[in-house]
Amino acid sequence: MTLSPELLHSIAADRLRAARPELAAQLDLSTPDGLLGAKAALAGAESADNAGGALVVTVVGRFRLPDWVRETCRFALSLPAERAEPWRRSFTRTVYLAGRPDNLAHRFTFDHVADDGSVAWTGPAADGRTTALRRLLKTFSGDRTLSAWAPVTVTVPGPSEPGPATRPPVHRDLYVATAQVTVSRLLVHVNHLLSESVLDGLIAPGDRLTLRSVPRLAGLTVPFAALRVDADPHRHELRAYAGLTKENRR
Questions:
Q1: What is 127-149 written as a DSSP string?
Q2: Kind of pairing between the strands at 171-177 and 237-245
Q3: How far apart are CA 70 and CA 169, in angstroms?
Q4: Cα separation of 137 and 3, whole Å?
Q5: What is the reported pTM?
Q6: Of 25, 151, 184, 197, which is most buried by a Cβ count within 10 Å?
Q7: Strands, sheet with 55-60, edge to edge from the N-terminal-most edge strand
């Protein structure tokens, strides 16, 4: 798969159409500038009708990429369809706050807490449900640029209340771009890719994900099943920030 500008544009436009087809039909998604304008318009529309409940708040105490990937998948897998659907329509909107979940447990109820207590999730819910939490804590500040890492494989756990298996487990590679990408931006991009892949059935309990760092995904020829594409703040163009490959046999 060649990650051409045309392909990146098509993937970004298809994501908007899939999440909000009724609004995307009214917008111009045919050009890069039109796509960026449509994204802003859709974000404004989503903010206006978020009373229906579609915001996830993540409290980050300690960040270690393999653990966070594993628990992010586990959280998304735990969501029933009636909560996952509005979150998907909100483009899996998530905010990240800095704090220690164990110090907050007596004041706030979390929907999922990592086994080691390093990260906690609440939602998807209307903005009002998390106002107190968001006012109490500061935005998570991961300003350092990502460094490369040796490939590491994690196994996706099941949700807290497991249901019947949907298919046999598979193995995929998760590629993450590191050039000019901070930890906080990694959280955003990889969260969108993982959460939407779970909701689309690409990631299921028991799957193995090998996390691989590359400066940029451009130039890779591996077959991708899903890509996270967004505007590059350093250039006036779209960029692939993370990619999940099709299942492989390694």
A1: GGGGHHHHHHSEEP---SBP---
A2: antiparallel
A3: 15
A4: 38
A5: 0.90
A6: 197
A7: 112-113, 119-125, 55-60, 94-98, 138-139
